[in-house]
Amino acid sequence: MNFCPFPHSLRDQAWLAVGLGCGVLLMRKLRMKETPPSVHVLLVNAKFESVDHKKKFKQIWSNIANKVKEVEPNCLSYEFCDAVEDPTKAIIYERYVTRVDLDGPHQKTLEEWKATYGEALGNLKFSMELVNYVESNIGYMDK
């Protein structure tokens, strides 16, 4: 019996393409789940003068969140979280592959954001405390 490993019919070629495509997507998804060994975390504790100031800040902040997702591949998470007990408090939770990713590319994005929205930010009253961490890899961030 003669056997040729290459599919000759159009139907078999289409199924081969579908199979290869699914395989590539699966491999990408599996690769995305791998967590780097020492993820750097920046936790920003924010306190706003009023709920209105916080609301306006969040509207402005959404622009940098979109930009970070677009241009910073080594930023793993960038999330604004509202405090449950005090509506004038929030945190910004940032995760980077390394501290260098925070100190380098992210600072450039942040400077551009401040240049664009600095005047609007200047009209808001808030304070921020920045605390740096390194993940221990005990536990998990997502399933």
UniProtKB/TrEMBL annotation:
Q: Name one Pfam family in it.
A: ABM
Xref: InterPro entries: ABM_dom, Dimeric_a/b-barrel
Domain named ABM is located at 52-103
Domain of life of the organism in this record?
Eukaryota
Q: What is this protein called?
A: ABM domain-containing protein
Q: Which organism is it from?
A: Durusdinium trenchii
